[in-house]
Amino acid sequence: MENIQDKLLSFSVDADGIGTLVINQTENSANLFSEEFIKRYVEVAHAAIADDSVKGVIVTSGKPIFMAGADLRALLEEIPDKGAFTQTILEMHKGMREIETGGKPFVAAINGTALGGGLELCLACHHRIALNSTKIKIGFPEIKVGLFPGGGGTVKAPYLMGIQTALMYLLQGIEARPPKALKDGLIDAVAETEEEMLAAAKAYILATPNPVQPWDNKKHRIPGGNIWTPNGVQTMVGASGNVGKLTHGNYPSAQKIIKVIHDGIQIPVDRALEIEARNFTAAASTPEAKNMIRTGFFAIQDAAKGKARPKDQPKYEIEKLGVLGAGMMGAGIAYVSAKAGMSVVLKDVSQEGAEKGKAYSTMLLDKAIAKKRSIPEKKEALLAKITPTDDPNAVEGSDLIIEAVFENVDLKDKVTKQTEAVLGEDKIYGSNTSTIPISLLAKSSARPENFIGIHFFSPVDKMPLVEIIVGEKTEDKAIAAAVDYTVAIKKVPIVVNDSRGFFTSRCFGTYVSEGMFLLEEGVPAPMIERVATKIGLPVGPLAVHDEVSLTLSVHIFESDPAEKSASEKRSYAMVKNLVENHNRTGKRDGAGFYDYPKGGQKKLWSGLKEIYTPDVNAVSEEDVKKRMLHRQVLESYRCLDEGVLRSTTDGDIGSILGWGFPIFTGGALSYIDYVGMDNFIADCDAFKALHGDHWEVPQSLRDLAAAGKSIHDFKK
Question: What mean pLDDT value characterizes the chain?
Answer without folding.
Answer: 96
